[in-house]
Amino acid sequence: MSFTITCPICGKRNLYEFRFGGEDRGPRPEETDLTPETWAQWAMMNDNVSGIQKEWWYHRDGCGAWFTVLRDTCTNREMENGTRPHDAENPASNGQGRPYPPFVDRL
Amino acid sequence: MFFGPRRFWGDNPFKSSYEAVIIGGGVHGLATAYYLARDHGLTDVAVIERRYIGYGGAGRNTAIVRANQRTPENVRLYSEGLKLWPELIDELDFNLMFFDCGNLNLAHSEAGMGAFRLQVATAQFMGVRSELLDAKQCQELVPLLDISDRPKYPILGGMYHPPGGTVRHDAVVWGLARGAWARGVHIHQQTEVTGIDTADGRVTGVRTTRGNIRTPKVLIATGAYGAQTARLVGIRLPIQVLTIQAMVSQPLKPFLHHVVSSGTYHCYCHQSLKGELVTGAHMDPWPNYTTQVTAEYLKHQAEALTDLMPALKSLKFMRIWSGLADMTPDMAPIIDGNDPVEGLYLDCGWGYFGFKSGPITGRYLARFMVEECCPDILQPFSLKRYRENRLMGEISTPPNYGPWN
Ligand SMILES: Cc1cc2nc3c(=O)[nH]c(=O)nc-3n(C[C@H](O)[C@H](O)[C@H](O)COP(=O)(O)OP(=O)(O)OC[C@H]3O[C@@H](n4cnc5c(N)ncnc54)[C@H](O)[C@@H]3O)c2cc1C
Ligand SMILES: [Zn+2]
Predict the structure, then answer these.
(1) FRET label pair with B324: which of B53, B148, B179, B283, CA 20 to 30 Å apart?
(2) Do B261 and B379 have their domain in common?
(3) Which residue of B34, B35, B49 sits with most ligand 1 atoms within 8 Å of its CB, as the best mutation to test the pocket?
């Protein structure tokens, strides 16, 4: 199974044209008074969302643009532009998706 | 006479309190339960498994065991782990089919040979058998290897580690489950932990789909779901969850007597005792929680295998499956306890390395959980190493092992 990613410039293309760039971690913390804890939290820790997350992609074999996408990590589907993580599927969630991924066995 | 299938362990009532609860019925969870009971007489223990034991990586891996990792801290643990298999077969009275056929890693560049030189030196320093081979010696071990200049990445040499090999993964799960259950451990399948309760910085219990359990000790051994489980108590982990695919071919007569791998080709294989070629691929380069398989990887495997061993052309794959790998930035696990929550223990982030280390880690974790003091051998794997900038350098790439590597 493969899936598509929509580049804002080139449109919907095969996943393998892109490079995954990490989940969106928000702005880089200010360097003044930065503690190792805060830095490690930002640079290394993840939310590991099981559900819809905002993430960076790079159109490596295309126009070279970096952009963000909303994708459901439990189905690999892109979400409509404008869907906020906590809108879809689980209105009560805090934007971190389901506490546990559903069973998607396709073996 | 045929009596029908029989499980190796039995059912027990679901109690509302246990002295320890282990979340996750994989090789790590079951091994810890087994050693809690065997070594420490702690038998009032429940293993809670969302689906069935072995559902996770424990039942999906390619069964390779070895102890020639890159850093001394890792080699020490894996080496003890490797020596444990014969002992375990004996005491569990269960045939784990340990086959110490040796592992051969191939290098296709001077840089690759350089990395192996370092790795071999570490192993030898730690008393683990490992040696550098030239291309000719590799071919003596595996006659089907094409060591000419024809392959896309010609073989320059290899790293040979005789004591490694394979172990039957399902047997390990079943054997440990039987051993733990026979000593009084309760195994509750089809039960999901949905919450972990704390009070005054201590664990007080877990919530499950079958009711709440009071307990002062909880081990998170949920494999690829470790980051999800840790988040139940607000702990974030540096983990990326990636799909990793594996496949087996039709059975052939014995032709491959070692585990062969190539980092450059992102491909490894060995021949099972049934004759199938068991092969694994690199991880899918984006995080997700599916167990989807892709045509891309089948094609990749076919190309890689036939480039290395052209005689395999026309070999047919029979089945393909996948599991999840919980990758950390330094490709070493996260083993911790009592920090920041008293009574809460973590054993995750094993990535695609964690089968071989299951029983040995379980043995030390059991001690950790009873004595509440982390054994030396597990100390390097604490979660705080990330904020202390003590990443373990298990790989020679920049210290951020993620989908992009
Ligand atoms: C394709 C593939 C090949 C691999 N090859 C190798 C190899 O050759 N050698 C090697 O050493 N390692 C290999 N690995 C890695 C190895 O399989 C894992 O690291 C190892 O299985 C981890 O064991 P575990 O016990 O920590 O987790 P798992 O075996 O994944 O067990 C975790 C269990 O927790 C359960 N669970 C999750 N959440 C909950 C919850 N909330 N409540 C209750 N239960 C829950 C899951 O259902 C699962 O059964 C491979 C992995 C894959 C996917
Ligand atoms: Zn583009």
Answers:
(1) B179
(2) no
(3) B49
Nearest-CA distance B125 → chain A (Å): 32
Same domain, B116 and B191: no
Tell me what the mean pLDDT of segment A74-86 comes to.
74
Model confidence at B283, in pLDDT bands (50, 70, 90)? confident
What residues flank ligand 1, with Cβ below 6 Å? A 100; B 23-29, 48-51, 55-58, 60-64, 192-193, 221-225, 229, 244, 246, 280, 323, 325, 350, 352-356, 358
The Cα B405–Cα B400 span in angstroms is 8
Say yes or no to pLDDT of B233 above 60: yes
Cα gap B327→B284, rounded to integer Å: 12
Give the pLDDT confidence of B120-176 residue by residue, as tens digits.
999 999 999 999 999 999 999 999 999 999 999 999 999 999 999 999 999 999 999
Task: Give the total number of structural domains in chain B.
Answer: 3
8 Å CB contact between B330 and B257? no
Task: Name the helix (H) or strand (E) containing A14.
Answer: strand A11-14
Find out whether the peptide bond into B340 is cis, omega within 30 degrees of 0. yes
Q: Which of B225, B237, B291 sits opposite A104 (nearest CB)?
A: B291
CATH number at residue B108: 3.30.9.10
Decide if pLDDT at B230 tops 60: yes
Please answer yes or no on whether B286 and A39 come within 8 Å at the CB atom: no
pLDDT at B195 over 50: yes
| Identity of the residue in A16, A21, A76 whose CB atom sits nearest the CB atom of B288 | A76
In a domain, B220, yes or no: yes
Q: Which residues contact B322 (CB under 8 A, 6 or more apart)?
A: A107, B60, B243, B244, B245, B246, B291, B292, B293
Residue B228 and residue A39: Cβ atoms within 8 Å?
A: no
Please give the ipTM for the structure prediction. Answer: 0.88
Residue B203 sits in the same domain as residue B155 = no
Nearest by CB: B238 against A2, A46, A107:
A46
The secondary structure of residue B258, as a DSSP letter, is: S
Please determine, for residue B67, whether its predicted confidence score (pLDDT) is greater than 70: yes
Position B255 pLDDT exceeds 60: yes
A46/A41 Cα distance (integer angstroms):
8
What is the DSSP secondary structure assignment for residue A7, as one 8-state letter?
E
Pocket test for ligand 1, best of B61, B169, B209, B212 (most atoms within 8 A of CB): B61
Take residue A24 and report the two structure tokens written for it: 């969106």
Residues B319 and B259 in one domain: yes
A27 touches chain B (CB under 8 A): no
Q: Which residues of B touch A15 (CB under 8 A)?
A: 286
Given a contact cutoff of 8 angstroms between Cβ atoms, the answer to whether B350 and B69 are in contact is: no
Q: State the residue range of the domain holding B192.
A: 20-61+170-238+330-388
